[in-house]
Amino acid sequence: MSEERSNQQKLGKLFEELACRFLSQRGYEILERNWRHQNGEIDIICTDGKAIIFVEVKGRSGFGKPESRIDDKKLEHIYLGVEEYIAQHDISQPVEIHAIAVEFIDENNYRIVHFREVG
Prior knowledge:
- The protein is α+β, with helices and mostly antiparallel strands.
- It has a single domain, classed as Trna Endonuclease, Chain: A, domain 1 (3-Layer(aba) Sandwich), CATH 3.40.1350.
- It is about 35% helix and about 40% strand.
- β1 (about 30-35) and β2 (about 40-45) form a beta hairpin.
- It starts with a helix and ends with a strand.
């Protein structure tokens, strides 16, 4: 594995950890992390007590907004994963798809934006 790929994976894990911490601090219960399905992976599955929420995490440490990387193809993979999770876990409560964007401002500061009901 290349060093660049390894660094990207470490950064991705950091973005997901920050997103989990953000959600937990706001009362969400984390149910699953990095749940793999036939067409990809759901970064975070959590609940707010009313719905099961599927969260896509995007981050950037350079130029551009991380949320701009959630395109129609990515949403299609998320929908397929949601359908598979519902079928496997016999979910009857409402489901939502959210996104968390993590953007590093500098070495010690970052911002997190929570997008509800994407797609």
